[in-house]
Design a protein that fits this description.
The structure is a single chain. By secondary structure, the chain is an alpha/beta fold. The protein has a domain of 175 residues: Rossmann fold (3-Layer(aba) Sandwich). Helix content is 39%, strand content 21%. The protein has a 7-stranded mixed beta sheet, sandwiched between helices. The chain is globular and about 55 Å long. The two termini are 31 Å apart.
């Protein structure tokens, strides 16, 4: 079974301004009439979902996330303004619903099987519907992960990380274009973009955004010591070296 990291929806909402900023950039590529049904695939705490609701005032938004904590945070933000569901994007079943648009940011790299993911999203889309997305791509947060590996090799932490490869899948544009075409998409375009971020609170940002999967492998009483070790390598005000994989495609 693929490894799944857990999330604290409230903490993510508090710290995710850089993610929202990146998501707004993706939303600028999304042309909408205002009457579409839009799937926010990996809606998180609902910060970008809120903007989608504003843009389809005569349509409908469905927000899906695998984390119940994220959906709880989104419900606190959005109330009854959106259809929110705890669900896995792989094997997603929207019942009788099909959507005009799948929008997604900062989600697909947490899913191991991109072939199954894209096949699932194609089934959710009507013919001619659009996929507009961004996630971590090849080279994403390489410096952070290198520091995490170096810290994890210290004797106090080594056993927890021995042989561990992590739950992320940072794909290349070429592999992603091939997978999307095989899943039934056309007019496929994928590209990488560097988007460095300097978080205001690096320790909490690393704890909740970048290194949550690492910390889950350690006892609670080692979390701060591990973060200390990573920050000693990165510096107290590190730059998070995001590389984003952008995806535009149309359902054939």
């Amino acid at each position: 079974m693929p490894e799944i990291r857990s999330w604290d929806g409230a903490a993510y909402d508090r710290l995710s301004t850089p993610m929202e900023r990146l998501g707004r950039e993706v939303m600028e590529r999304l042309e909408l009439r205002g009457d579409e049904t839009v799937l926010d695939a990996g809606c998180g705490s609902g910060r970008l979902t809120e903007l989608l609701i504003e843009r389809v005032s005569d349509g409908r938004v469905i927000g899906v996330d695998m984390s119940a904590s994220m959906i709880e945070a989104a419900r606190g933000r959005l109330g009854d303004a959106v259809d929110l569901r705890v669900a896995d994007l792989v094997g997603l079943d929207l019942g009788a619903d099909t959507v005009d648009v799948v929008f997604s940011t900062a989600t697909f790299h947490w899913i191991a099987d991109h072939d199954a993911l894209f096949a699932s999203l194609r089934r959710a889309l009507r013919a001619g519907g659009r996929l507009v997305a961004q996630c971590g791509g090849a080279g994403n947060i390489a410096t952070v992960h290198a520091a995490a590996r170096q810290a994890g090799d210290e004797p106090a932490f080594r056993a927890a990380f021995d042989g561990w490869r992590g739950p992320w899948n940072f794909a290349t544009p070429e592999d992603t274009e091939r997978r999307l075409t095989a899943a039934g998409f056309r007019d496929v375009r994928c590209w990488l973009a560097e988007r460095p971020v300097r978080p205001d609170d690096p320790r909490e940002y690393l704890r909740n955004i970048n290194l949550g999967a690492h910390l889950e492998r350690l006892p609670d009483d080692q979390h701060d010591a591990y973060l200390d070790a990573v920050l000693a390598i990165l510096g107290e005000r590190p730059t998070i070296d995001y590389v984003r994989l952008n995806i535009d495609a149309t359902a054939a």
